[in-house]
Amino acid sequence: MLTDNKALFAMAVEDALNEGGQPTLRLVANELLGKYKCSIADCLEHPEYLKNVLNQIFGHADIVVIEKIKKNLGEFSVETPVNQFLKVLAK
Predict the structure, then answer these.
(1) How far is Cα 6 from Cα 2, in angstroms, rounded to an integer?
(2) How many domains does the chain have?
(3) pLDDT at 4
(4) Which residues contact 44 (CB under 8 A, 6 or more apart)?
(5) CATH classification at residue 23
(6) ∠ CA 10-90-30, rounded to 5°
(7) CB-neighbour burial class of residue 24 (10 A; exposed 0-12, middle 13-18, buried 19+)
(8) What is the percent of the chain with per-residue pLDDT over 90, rounded to a whole number?
(9) CA 66, CA 42: separation in Å to the nearest integer?
(10) What's residue 8's pLDDT?
């Protein structure tokens, strides 16, 4: 995936997290950095990291955030890396 597309991916995920309020994005980003030493953009290659953090923070309500992420990714969801990312989140 091109760097520009990775940046767009990160923006789509960040926008979905921002819908829960600015502290939500900050909390998720801090957990990813602390636990996995990665950013939201890195989750494209490691979707299980984001899945684990969302589940830890939201429990079963993580499905709401995942649906927002899926909606924000829209047309990118047909691209292989994004499609694989969404499959892991949906598990």
Answers:
(1) 6
(2) 1
(3) 65
(4) 1, 6, 9, 10, 81, 82, 85
(5) 1.10.1200.200
(6) 40
(7) middle
(8) 69
(9) 17
(10) 86
Q: Is 74 left (phi over 0), alpha (psi -120 to 50) or beta?
A: left
With tokens 């602390």, the residue in question is: 34
Q: What does the DSSP assignment read for 47-71?
A: HHHHHHHHHHHHGGGHHHHHHHHHH
Phi–psi pair at 76, nearest 5 degrees? -75, -15
Structure tokens at 72: 């924000």
> Can you give the pLDDT at residue 63?
92
Q: Residue 1 above 50 pLDDT?
A: no
Q: Which domain holds residue 16?
A: 3-90
Contact 35, 53 (CB under 8 A): yes
* pLDDT tens, position by position, 45-71: 999 999 999 999 999 999 999 999 999
CA distance 61 to 72: 18
State both tokens at 7: 């940046």
User: Rounded to two decimals, what is the model's pTM?
Assistant: 0.89
